[in-house]
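Human: We require from you a protein record containing the residue sequence and its fold in token form, and nothing else.

Assistant:
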Amino acid sequence: MKIATFNINGIKARLPRLKEWLEETRPAVACLQEIKSQDEGFPASEFEALGYSAIWHGQKSFNGVAILVDEKAGYSCTEIQRGLGIDGPKEGEGEQSRYIEADVTKDGETVRIVCIYLPNGNPHPGPKFDYKLAWMDKLQARMRAIWDEEVPAAVLGDYNVIPEDDDVFSVRAMANDALMQPESRAAYARLLGDGWTDAVRTLNPRGGVWTYWDYQAGAWQRDHGFRIDHILLSPELADRLEAVGVDREHRGREKASDHAPVWAILREK
């Protein structure tokens, strides 16, 4: 079973690139972030034509998450929860579209899939950073609840956290960014401390794996990237982890997202 996460940075603007990636790599499950589309504007029919069904949680111009499952390969999807019940940093804003959770089933086996787009938190310090940390607390509480259900589970997405110094091209360049603050890293470490496994780190213990390259300052051309897109696995799925990877080549295509897809392959039970 191949599961993947991809911050697409605007599903309408990147639709040709997204469809290429789906056709070329064919993940069983694809978690998307920053779809930047209201619910009624989500291009579900484009994915149905490729054999994928979808659930999504949209928002106008910003944020938004979705889960695609390969129906053609026999997978089905049942939504479990959307949202974590936390309002955005602006007064009266309401909840942002950053969380969607589903059960994905094939041949009687079910895996809980969670797709997240964690707040960036910049500028730091300030209300956006406070919101980031509060959101991470809510996420940890939900992940603990999933753990208590004793279901095999994976939490995929753009965490907007650089966990370790070897997950970034330059510690000095990112030192003041919310992605690398001690509080952000500590909140991420608490998730791992609860027993979740960072799939990419597990198979790349020396680091040096990037998933994001900014559009500015020639970051892609200079390989000035860092790792903020993560796949966390419950113990049952961690025991089945066979391979992980980053589809870097897709970042270099015309009108690409500033993120590259990240994937993991799990042995069949």
Notes: The mean pLDDT is 97. Residues 2-266 form a domain with the Deoxyribonuclease I; Chain A fold (CATH 3.60.10.10).
